[in-house]
Every structure is written in C-alpha cells, then in structure tokens.
Specification:
Blueprint lengths: L1 E8 L2 E8 L4 H8 L18 E4 L2 E4 L12 E3 L12 H8 L9 H16 L18 H7 L10 H15 L1
Helix pairs in contact: 2-5
C-alpha cells in the first residue's frame, strides 16, 4: 500500500509516494538522495540515522515515512547557515570529534536536539536535582548522548565539543 506525503527536508519541500513500510531513513536516502543520515544497525540501537523531526531528535530508521507527512526534517547537512557551520558542527571540527566520520551526522543532530532539550529544562537520568535547571556536566552529556555510538571511540573529543557548543547556543 502506498501513501502520498509531503516533507520539508533541510528547508526544501518534497512530495513523494512511499510504500507504507518505508522508513524515514530509507525515504531520505533512497528516494531523496540525502545521504547525511547513515544506516548503521537499522534497528534503532546505534544512532547513526538520527535526524531532527520538527525540532526533536529521532532515529529515522524507526520512523515510518508515511506517519510524518507535513513534517520538517533537518539532517546534519541542513544545520549550517549558508557557509557558516552550526555551533555544534564548528565545535566538532574544533575538537576533532570524529574519526571515520560515519556516526558524525547522527552525533551532530543528536547533540543539537539534546541541547534544545536542556534549554527546555528536560532532566535526564543523570540529572541530580530534578527541580533545578539542568547543568551540562560531562556525565550529563554522556548520558544524554548514550543512544549514539561511535565505533572509533571518539567520545573523548565529542563530549568537550558538546560542552563548547552548549556555551554558544544558549
């Protein structure tokens, strides 16, 4: 069974017909040619496919494209303002927070979404005082980014990159 949907991806509008079993990840990569989100595990366990869906981070391999018609999708490719990288992208470059780069688009989108969650006052499992404004300690960042795996173990650079970006996007 097919479904006609419209999506805005990285600021550009698209209309397409998808099989109702098609994931958002497959629609982005195979139908729209957007190779920024990566297919890692295809089971929602690695985070390589993380995108922002209406501003919230989601695992695109777990979202059916037919369920998000009319949504705005932002991939790591759509975060920059023209030639100016998003503060998270700039921080990842400044801290060499990538090695092979495969997980980087998902890490970047997850970090952007996570920083928005912190700004909204959302606690995490690592938040010690649920009544206070969350503070981004290294433990807090690690907990909030736990759904994004890096096979190269670049975490030692990813966490400081997010700390730098947090100071720039608040």
């Amino acid at each position: 069974m097919d479904a006609a949907i419209s999506l805005t991806v990285d600021g550009e509008g698209y209309r397409l017909t998808v099989d109702t079993r098609t994931t958002l990840l497959d629609a982005l990569r195979d139908r729209l040619g957007n190779i920024s989100p990566k297919k890692g595990c295809d089971h929602g366990q690695c985070g390589a496919c993380t995108v922002l869906l209406d501003g919230r981070r989601v695992l695109a391999c777990l979202v059916l494209a037919a369920t998000v018609g009319g949504a705005e999708v932002t991939t790591a490719s759509g975060l920059a303002e023209g030639d100016t990288p998003h503060p998270v992208q700039r921080a990842f470059l400044d801290h060499d927070a990538f090695q092979c780069g495969y997980c980087t688009p998902g890490q970047v989108c997850s970090a952007v979404g996570m920083l928005d969650e912190v700004a909204a006052g959302w606690p995490s499992h690592a938040t010690t005082d649920l009544t206070a404004e969350p503070r981004l300690s290294q433990a807090e960042i690690s907990e909030r980014m736990a759904g994004n795996l890096c096979r190269c173990a670049a975490y030692v650079n990813i966490v400081p990159a997010i700390e730098q970006a947090a100071g720039e996007v608040r």
